[in-house]
Amino acid sequence: MTTTPPAAATPTTIPDRAFFVLPAANDAGTGNYFGPGPVLPVLCGASPGDERVVAQRARSLPYRRAGASADEVPSGNYRHSITIYRSGGAGAALAELRAAVRACPEQPARGTPPATVRQHLLPDSGYGDESVLFETRTPYRDANGDPSGGDEVHLIRAVRVGDVVSLLWEQGWESTSTERAQFDADSRRAVEAVRRWLD
Fold first, then answer.
1. 3-state secondary structure of 165
2. CA 172 to CA 179: how far, in whole Å?
3. Whose CA is closest to 11, among 132, 187, 162?
4. At CA 24, angle to CA 22 and CA 30, rounded to 5?
5. How far is CA 16 from the centre of its chain?
6. What pairs with residue 119 in β-bridges?
7. Contact 35/77 with Cβ under 8 angstroms?
8. Do 50 and 10 touch, CB atoms closer than 8 A?
9. Which terminus has fewer CB within 10 Å in the chain: N or C?
10. 32-35, long-range: CB within 8 Å, 24+ apart, which pairs?
11. pTM of the model
């Protein structure tokens, strides 16, 4: 007689090992900092999935692009969060996130003089059980805060693995934009870290 082992229970706490480690070439040497704060850009006041959260942890992780000299400032900063949802809640949270981005194509950006930040969903696949990818675009500004041409672009990717969502929000550093190849590579590292933890 054979028996099927019981399915692993969804965890209720999030250990440090659930978070990915940067490769040495991308380590800014500043460490990572766990603490409270937003895990998503403002989306016209929406709060996708909040009522289904079991546990959440978030950290800030500065990084540098490969080949940057050790004395350079970081190339960017990740706000990386991991959220455990009640059974079935993670999929609903991602659906609500998609809807929130669609419902908020633009909104006022913080700062003076006034500017507009635009949000847009991007096609995405190949990450976890499902994923949501979107960008934010804000006009570059000069030292006086006036638009100087072009947009500062940041990417945000939420990836579901079972009842867990890993969300990577690239926030830039001193008006830098997200480099897609680096962001995609670190998104995969984040997913693999979650999978190893859950296994």
1. strand
2. 9
3. 162
4. 70
5. 17
6. 136
7. no
8. no
9. N
10. 32/59, 32/60, 32/61, 33/59, 33/60, 33/61, 34/58, 34/59, 35/59, 35/60
11. 0.90
3-state secondary structure of 98: helix
Residue whose pair of structure tokens reads 């830039």 in the numeric block: 172
Given the structure tokens 């403002």, which residue do they identify? 42
Strand partners, 133: 122, 157
Long-range contacts of 88-93 (CB under 8 A, 24+ apart): 88/163, 89/49, 89/52, 89/53, 89/163, 90/49, 90/52, 90/160, 90/162, 90/163, 90/164, 90/165, 91/130, 91/160, 92/49, 92/52, 93/48, 93/49, 93/52, 93/158, 93/165
| Residuewise pLDDT in 10s, the chain (199 residues) | 444 444 457 789 999 999 999 998 888 888 889 999 999 999 998 989 888 999 999 999 999 988 777 778 888 999 999 999 999 999 999 999 999 999 999 998 876 677 889 999 999 999 999 999 999 999 877 766 666 778 889 999 999 999 999 999 999 998 889 999 999 999 999 999 999 999 9
